[in-house]
Design brief:
32% helix; globular; disordered C terminus; binds zinc ion
Amino acid sequence: MRRLLTPALLVALALSAPPAARAGQDNPADRLLDQPMDAHRADRATGCANKEQPGALALDGWLAARMPVGEQWGIEKCRRVRGGQSWSLHAEGRAIDWKLDVDVPSERLAGDRLVSLLLRRDRRGRPNALARRMGLQEVIWNCRIWTPLSTLQRPYGPCAKRKVDRTMAHRDHVHIGLNWRGALMKTTFWRSYLPEPPPPDPSSPSPPPGQLDSLARSSIR
Ligand SMILES: [Zn+2]
């Protein structure tokens, strides 16, 4: 006999699920159905910007609030793509690496769920909905890459070589790159984005009350 879940139990289960599990149910792209879908778009990097673009910083905040594990592993760095001559999106400050290890089951699951969320269809059946809303042009994780050339992931080229290190293979981080519209927060997701508060950091004590005024003043400069 099948067990029936009462509505109250379903609510309790949903509330007790970790953020990534809830993310499996909730596609932020579905909140934007009344706005025209952003086009698939990729912009080649041409040099070093020496700054982190606002969309990359916002994506960092979104990941920090949403991901149950991992941490930011770098945004801006003036360099070419690993093993190649073309400029990395990191050189223009419009890519972010999120540290996750495929050999740690909870981290692998979190990475798989993140990529799935970014690339899945919205309620109207449009593929890569959240990636397009955010203005993404690269998602690389565990020897698979997605770019707007296809709606699906494909094998990541460097992994075909016999000797490929874990970082090159993106087995120790997820790489997410933004096109210029995403990097400048001009796509539909970022235009309506309200930053999620960062998770509380238990290691940083709150300042004593007397310091709050001076902290507030110093942050205005
Ligand atoms: Zn990267």
